Amino acid sequence: MLTEIDFLDVVRLTPLVAFDLIVSDTRGRVLIGRRRNRPARGTWFVPGGRIHKDETLDAAFARIADAELGIANLARSTARFEGVFEHHYSDNFAGEPDVSTHYIVLAYALTLAGTAPLGRPEQHSEYAWLAPEELLARADVHDNTKAYFR
């Protein structure tokens, strides 16, 4: 496990690799959460998380789905790969000046028959289910989330 100082060096020097989960319900609405943490604090965003060193993609996907959605043992093969995206932020998790954050994001879409139990209240202060046209119209939905629907 990296210390906060070591992780800040990683953020300063390299891109991070992450999954974003584009979760829809059977009515076509998309799950978004209002971020508590940097980067993108205060904006609405799809659930997701970074992949840890030496973690397989399948293990990371299952861990992130459990942590972000409260769904244990979700297989990556049950989701549809939407592509690779780049996210650039002028800030970072620590609020350290002059350190940007760069993510390479593997986006996966999945449809849930019911609503997810939702985990990680430390990540999101609230959740909402919005139709794609609704989230595209809102100024407080982050552009990186809107990119999945353009």
UniProtKB/TrEMBL annotation:
CDD domains: NUDIX_GDPMH_NudD
Annotated residues for binding of Mg(2+): 48, 68, 123
Record has Magnesium as a keyword: yes
GO molecular function, one term: metal ion binding
Sites annotated Critical for catalysis: 124
Domain of life: Bacteria
UniProt-listed SUPFAM superfamilies: Nudix
Keyword terms, alphabetized: Hydrolase, Magnesium, Metal-binding, Oxidoreductase
UniProt motif (Nudix box) ranges: 49-70
Cofactor(s) for this UniProt protein: Mg(2+)
Pfam families recorded: NUDIX
Cofactor annotation comment: Binds 1 Mg(2+) ion per subunit.
EC number(s) recorded for this UniProt protein: 1.1.1.271
Residues annotated as domain Nudix hydrolase: 14-150
Listed name of the protein: GDP-mannose mannosyl hydrolase
